[in-house]
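tool_call: predict_structure(chain=1)
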Amino acid sequence: MTDPLLDGDGESVLRQVYDAAGPYLASLAGRPVLDPAAAPLLRELAGDLPDKGDGSAAAVRKLLHVGTEAATHSAGPRFFHFVIGGVTPAALAGDWTASLLDQNAAFRNSSTFATEVETVALRWLRELFGLPEGYGGALVASATFANFTGLGAATHWWGERHGVDVAANGLVGLPRMPVLSGGYVHASSRKALQMLGHGRDSVEVFARDDIGRADLAAMERRLAELGAPAVIIANAGEVNAGDFDPVAELADLAERYGAWLHVDGAFGLFAALSPRTAGLVAGIERADSIACDAHKWLNVPYESGFAFLREPARLAAAFGMPGAAYLPAPDDPRGGYALLGPESSRRARALPIWATLAAYGRSGYQAMVERHLDLAQHLAALVDAAPDLERLADVPLCIVCFRVRPPGVPEEELDDLNRRVGAAVLADGRVFAGTTLYGGRVALRPAIVNWRTTESDIEAFVEIVRSLIP
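tool_result:
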């Protein structure tokens, strides 16, 4: 086979994927998250670039054979590593539709359809989280890009305060932009600042303990001392134990000192969906920018972050492209979301978001979030009841931070023991959860955000962890 035009297997190769999808998805509940015995299959994908290809049917057959066995089955119910949701049936179908239609969602005149779907999806997301009507935003590739977008707009705002258009002229000649946060600031915010030219170490951290809880008094003293425009990062959902910065109090500080408030709500923004946890994000409606990641608790495919701004016109000011004769200007009615964020050509990532929100609605997502809240409390209770486990933190949301602590093991040996248990959990593959450092102690921090997860998965997780304690 030398030319895709001559490949007559176009429809049959799609049938292969469809035929594989049903059995694979049905098997997820009983599969290990990672099967170590399948690793040798990866060698089948290697070798030199073929001069003459095998055709689409043979290529996809091999990819499915290897992938369904050797992939990390993170779409399944026992993947608790990082903060990763599965993909709902509607979102998966929406994603297939996005690939089928192959739209460039950059501009209205490249795809009116994709632009309209994104406009509706963003409005629905705003309504889902209860944000004020004036907020607007754009879909981006990840939580990191959502932070990049929000902090990019903040950079443009900060430059304005110094009489400089940083989108046109950059940061040269300006002082360092002050960025303040509590100790929960995430690496993705630091990476965003790194890419924006501020430096990942530009964040001034004000923490009142070794956990990272924000020291508001120290932060206020610094803002008063600066007497200049600054950016505050509030963290809605810390990744080790699911704790929250006091968003409303940080909003008060921002208002009092004329600062920009950016909220990193990568997964914690979903606390707004339940009356049981909505208080954790009180004040979010006063933020200047908000970052979130739909592939987490919305359970849609990857490359589905989003950013909201209180003044959405700032997106075009910060991310609009310089004129090219064939491209629309930011204020052109033919413009589109490529002018409101860091990417130009863009996949129609709004389709799975629209599909899943249309399918399950506000009440469906509230029910899922509340089920996960219950599962997190169930896991916490199992940890508390186990004689060889120790919970290290409260459970405000969906993450349970704990460590193994068998009777008689000296404190100074526990960190090494937990590292070994964490490595054993990942190597075993039946469930997945990694280790972290919490308050100076090595711990496990399973996150429950997959729509498939049930009580039996939580109970299996605890049993497997305990069985791997040496």
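agent: The mean pLDDT is 96. Proceeding to next step.
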